[in-house]
Amino acid sequence: MSLPRNKRKIIVDTQVYYWIAKGNYEIINLTIENSIGNKLFAQFDYDTLNGKSNYFNFPFVVTPYVVREIILYALNRNYSNTQKSKELHLGNMSKEIRLCSLAERKIKKVLKSIESRIHQGRLNPKVGEVEYVLKETREYIKYGELLIGIEDMIDNLFEISFEFNEEELTLIKDVSEMSLSNWKSIRARLIEIMNKKN
């Protein structure tokens, strides 16, 4: 049975997937289907801090970034894009995905910090270029491409000799040290930026 009409679309490594998330006040169920009909299922705790609690103090939100990370996780566990296969049930992925959500929040803090400096008039010569880079980064995050967005942001800001403040550098460093996907390129660029700053 295929997904309902209100499904959402995401592209990961040139492959099209459709997904839908539904909650039952205790667990959020995520269903993903690829272009050949292979289904993938994952679950998340409704409350990010209190396990199966149905309190809404710290609700978990299924974002495109979360969906992308689940797809990449599944592809490393025999989920196929090329041939029909059985449904893959990953179970509760709350612990595994918590790092992804944390990384996204930290990068959004970096963006807000830079935007705040723009509004305070502290980046006058580079405002147009910096605003363009921030807009592009937000687009990447919106469409579930956090890693690409971070790499693109760091590379582009590095090219125009943008200076991150200490708080921004710390947040980026925290993200680069998370064991998510392959963060080597971010770590390498961050070392260059820190060396340039010193």
Unreliable stretches covering 5 or more consecutive residues:
none
Count of DSSP H/I helices: 6
**Main structural class:** alpha+beta
Structural domain count: 2
* Shape, principal axes of CA atoms: elongated
| Element string (H = helix, E = strand) | EEEEHEHHHHH
Strand order of the largest sheet: 1-2-3-4-5
Query: Which radius of gyration do the C-alpha atoms yield?
Result: 19 Å
Q: Largest beta sheet, briefly?
A: 5 strands, mixed
Share of residues in strands:
15-25%
Q: How many β-strands, per DSSP?
A: 5
Cα distance spanning the termini: 58 Å
Give the rounded overall mean pLDDT.
80
Q: What do these coordinates show?
A:
With 198 residues, the protein is of the alpha+beta class. It folds into 2 domains: 85 residues, no CATH class; 98 residues, no CATH class. Helix content is 47%, strand content 17%. It is built from 6 helices and 5 strands. Strands 1-2-3-4-5 form a 5-stranded mixed sheet. Strand 4, helix 1 and strand 5 form a beta-alpha-beta unit. Helix 2 packs antiparallel against helix 5. The mean pLDDT is 80.
